[in-house]
């Protein structure tokens, strides 16, 4: 075997169906950042097959790449910048997002009838129209509908703390979104959407017409400690062959800086991937992997191309499978396990992994 990322597209389809059934509204499967590291084109295709009505991406380049790969369903893009190629997106039948009157003017200047969604900032203080600028954005949107520049297909916003169900920002943002919808009287969007994965699962009042499912589509928990068991299945497994196993004596230091020193004789194994493949260096001396049916601790610093694990006296053959993370069904760690020891979130674990690792798709 060779080091690889294995992505189970059947798991993606299962997750999309389970999430749609749980919410009872339309879904948008978010495939930005190359499908959260799972493969944008392949995940989008699987999500369409499972009935997802919309696909969501961040950048225009991502949207155009999907269209070039043959995707033909409803597709929303939301992250642009001055001088963006609006015309290319409109010609490719992409729904684009506007935050400002200036962006709407740029869209109108293409001379192409567009499908546009308006984003209101309800408290994330990131993208979206401010409360003060919203009336002018709405008025310009109405004007553009009257003169045929576009059709306003959606109004939306994004939560800041939906993974913390009791956070006061959630109620405040939902109320702000309702007020923005009231101020948009006279527009008749196809979809109003606020909820991401955590809110879609945990906050029924925020579902409106559509839920944008990102992380949960990949089978990962968007709100650890709060999410009910929906039977979601992690779609990604990262594995590599054991390159070497050997004994070391007590007192031997392992890897750069000797941040771990063996206090008794033991055996160690060499895993031939490292931070160049997105294995987080911050997980040094903390993460665990599955080798020969047992969880083994990472010892010493994770290097650019390799890391070392403590085999506890065992000497498995070179070529033995090492599973960094996967579903967790066979004793292997999960992406969430790696996130916890690295002081991050599972989003970062799966989106960073890659580098020289090829992806292999299965339908298990």
Automatic annotation (TrEMBL):
Q: Which cofactors are reported in the record for this sequence?
A: pyridoxal 5'-phosphate
Q: Which SMART domains match?
A: Ala_racemase_C (SM01005)
Q: Which Pfam families match?
A: Ala_racemase_C, Ala_racemase_N
> What positions does the domain Alanine racemase C-terminal occupy?
235-362
Q: In which pathway does it act?
A: Amino-acid biosynthesis; D-alanine biosynthesis; D-alanine from L-alanine: step 1/1
Q: Which reaction does it catalyse?
A: L-alanine = D-alanine
Where, per the database record, does this protein carry N6-(pyridoxal phosphate)lysine?
Answer: 32
Q: Decide whether keyword Cytoplasm is in the record.
A: no
GO MF assignments: alanine racemase activity
Keyword terms, alphabetized: Isomerase, Pyridoxal phosphate
Q: Can the keyword Isomerase be found in this entry's annotation?
A: yes
Q: Where does substrate bind?
A: 126, 304
Enzyme class per UniProt: isomerase
| InterPro entries found in the cross-reference section | Ala_racemase (IPR000821), Ala_racemase/Decarboxylase_C (IPR009006), Ala_racemase_C (IPR011079), Ala_racemase_N (IPR001608), Ala_racemase_pyridoxalP-BS (IPR020622), PLP-binding_barrel (IPR029066)
The catalytic activity of this protein is classed by the Enzyme Commission as: 5.1.1.1
Question: In the UniProt entry, which residues are flagged as the active site?
Answer: 32 (proton acceptor), 256 (proton acceptor)
Q: Which HAMAP family match?
A: Ala_racemase
Please name the PANTHER family in this protein's record: ALANINE RACEMASE, ALANINE RACEMASE, CATABOLIC-RELATED
Q: Which family does it belong to?
A: Belongs to the alanine racemase family.
Tell me the function of this protein.
Answer: Catalyzes the interconversion of L-alanine and D-alanine. May also act on other amino acids.
Q: What is this protein called?
A: Alanine racemase
Q: What is the originating organism of this protein?
A: Nocardioides caricicola
Q: What phylogenetic lineage does the species belong to?
A: Bacteria, Bacillati, Actinomycetota, Actinomycetes, Propionibacteriales
